């Protein structure tokens, strides 16, 4: 009996990079118009908190650094020095599945205190989406979607890349609106690294 092999496997590194870029290109062309709504929510928030687990969390940490460069007050949920979220704050919560328990719990708490919750996910039908003020859907595979039809990449890789790309695009928009020269933003970059 032949073994099922849903993903197209290739040893060719150039081919694999092309697959990844093409998947991200396709995703960008299908970008949820709701994504633009994140811009004013960030602009009007007292403070921005980001939360995500695993690789999704890493992408959001990268986004948090860029928001810091813009001069926003931004915290990564789970860091030792991150304070309590409050009304007027924004929680930017990323979860491809929308079910990761720590992320759902953080959104529950944020909603309970009157903070806004933006969910970046692959679906509107999830516990996380149900708690969100705004849901931005990225049409990518979820981490346990092993069928290979939505993405040739392993697990939630496409979603996690798309979170980084989307939040970098959000940064570019916020930077254009702000207009501060790159040299000025750079003064905020960590000088203890
Ligand atoms: O680290 C991850 C994993 O490698 C999937 O590709 C996920 O980002 C992590 O497990 C969080 O999952 P989601 O909340 O579903 O994004």
TrEMBL record:
It holds the Pfam family SIS. One of its GO terms (biological process) is carbohydrate derivative metabolic process. Residues 38-180 form the SIS domain. Transmembrane segments: none annotated. Signal peptide: none annotated. The keyword Transcription does not apply. This is 6-phospho-3-hexuloisomerase. PANTHER family: 3-HEXULOSE-6-PHOSPHATE ISOMERASE. GO terms for molecular function: carbohydrate derivative binding; isomerase activity. The gene is hxlB.
